[in-house]
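Record 1 of the preview.
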Amino acid sequence: MKWLREPFVQFLLVGAILALAWSALSGRLADDDANRIEMDAQEIELLAANWERQWQRPPTEEELRGLVDSRVREEILYRTAQSMGLDRNDVVVRRRMVQKMELLSQDLATITDPPETEVRTYFAENRDTYLVPPQISFRHVYFNLDQRGYEQAEADARALLAELRTTEPDEVEVAALGDRFMLASAYRMRTPEEIAREFGSRFAEAIVGLERGWHGPIGSGYGTHLVEVTERVEARPPEFEEVRERVSADYSRVRRERANELLVETLSAEYEISIDSAAIHNRSLEALREAAE
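->
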């Protein structure tokens, strides 16, 4: 049934379930059993199963009794703290409870996988986000600033650049020019991000827009370089299949965010909210005056 996939319908259902659960809980707490703590077979089995998942073996009877005693102790302290109102005005507790509510709405949003038509629509609306980056093949000649000094290295690079633009040296000849470099002298089909990881962002930004041929001098974290761009593929919009997994993950995140927004919007209708806008305005003015002084 398509209507069950609608987020608003799902929230109405969960809201009804939560209301029933709270009603049942409130009624139980009003009974004489409000102070009763019962560790039944189901609860004990859950404790044992959690232990077994963690330690890859079932607990001994002594260990299981320890788990039960610990769980009872925890419940006693929790109920007592709650009855004393210790959960009120506690920032950590408030944030944790907000987080659990958000997780609840997120779980609801992911009860069913989104239809592919929705994922494809999201992709079409955000296609520029998934641009396939440009790729560049290049080779380079390295000049060591520590050995030559900055001015000499720049002068040597410019002199060699004039020669390289009139000749066509092979890979071996290029590798022998300049100074010894710890990394490769030629790279094939690298993205700007990959280039930045090896040479630094300044070097990557400098060569990403270059046309084919020799260019330089171009600085990097190592020194200065002459660079020949031998091949380049421009950035392009991707096909859906190329980025399907990434788009699906992004759309799932968006669904979770929308679920949280819808949850707050739905619950807000149950509250009378009063905000002192004048106090906000006055406090902002005060902050501006203090900053100006």
